Amino acid sequence: MDRVLLVDDHRHVRRVLREYLCLCQEVIVVGEAAGGAEAVQLTGELLPDVVLMDITMPGMSGVEATTLIRRSYPEVRVITISSYPEPEVRDGALEAGAADHLLKPVTLRELQDALDRSRK
Question: Among 3, 36, 66, 120, which has the minimal tally of Cβ within 10 Å of its Cβ?
């Protein structure tokens, strides 16, 4: 069972992602954050297995938060998500330590596949 922390600055996006994840049998959402700094803090408090991280947020970006999370909690897997299709966005996330990168709007199947890939 993967314990997931959702991170996105848009409440609607977090709600949709939560609804998707509730359909996954091997997933439980343990928390939500609206920004990168909050994501780093909650990762330390909740110790999720996976952080589903938006890339573009005010304040601390998802890439910065991913770097900090992976440095402090290397066992936590981060899957980034973005609406920007440019390869450099994906590459930056992967260089920061993300296990995978998805494009918005993400489908349930894409989300499940990314979670499966991150376990390997």
Answer: 120
